[in-house]
Design brief:
By secondary structure, the chain is of the alpha+beta class. It contains nine helices and nine strands. The strands form two sheets. It has a five-stranded antiparallel sheet.
Length: 226
């Protein structure tokens, strides 16, 4: 029992040292190479603690190796832009003056739902107010809002009616709208195939934000009873 306790204390101190070396950041703020090393360290630490037949030396050496590897990567990350791009990637603009960048969205393997969740986390509930949205290297989304004179405009919630070419029937029902409403709006814009629509949202004022894949977004206003 005493051996198990001592092994646990030693491994704990080494893991604590490794985590402190990474700085005071939350898991969601870690760069990719930091997250990978963190996960491996957590797994390696369990082995010598749970299995006392394994010499503790076999547990300490891999942990210290990862600590040194992390220090080396961090050093190179500070000194070289090229290494930084390889290890961390680079920020990608997913919303600009033309609306949502569908190609960038696919490159990041993100869905419209992922994007909308990220915007809401950034306290942005209206796509029409977004000037730029950037996915940072740690996965967080930074948002630059457009200038607006209306505080109320910021509080309007966009309800998604079309998500990557698919109609959200539940949201249509909640908004007391029908599929024909969407078809009529798109027909006025000479759009016949709903599958070409990347996103189509509406708020309580009847303001519509929609965008075809790889095309500029459009803002419309329809009279609706919501």
């Amino acid at each position: 029992m005493l051996t198990l306790i001592l092994r646990s204390i030693i491994i704990y101190c080494i893991v604590l040292f490794a985590v402190r070396l990474m700085g005071k950041r939350q898991i969601g703020d870690l760069q990719p190479f930091e997250l990978v090393i963190t996960l491996i360290i957590a797994d390696l630490a369990c082995v010598p603690i749970s299995d006392i037949t394994i010499p503790i030396f076999f547990g300490i050496v891999p942990l210290l190796t990862l600590v040194i590897l992390h220090y080396l990567f961090t050093f190179l990350n500070r000194k070289s832009i090229i290494v930084r791009k390889i290890l961390n990637g680079q920020p990608i603009i997913i919303i600009d003056n033309d609306g949502i960048n569908y190609i960038a969205l696919k490159k990041l393997n993100m869905t419209i739902n992922d994007l909308m969740e990220g915007l809401r986390t950034a306290q942005c509930f209206n796509l029409a107010n977004v000037a730029y949205a950037i996915v940072e290297t740690n996965g967080n989304i930074s948002v630059l809002n457009k200038n607006t004179d209306s505080d109320q405009q910021e509080k309007l919630l966009n309800i998604i009616l079309i998500n990557d070419g698919k109609i959200i029937e539940e949201n249509l029902k909640n908004m007391n709208l029908s599929k024909s409403f969407i078809e009529n709006v798109l027909e006025k814009q000479n759009i016949k195939d709903i599958k070409n629509i990347l996103i189509f949202t509406i708020n309580s004022r009847g303001e519509i934000y929609f965008q075809e894949k790889n095309k500029k977004y459009k803002l419309l206003h329809e009279k609706v009873n919501i």
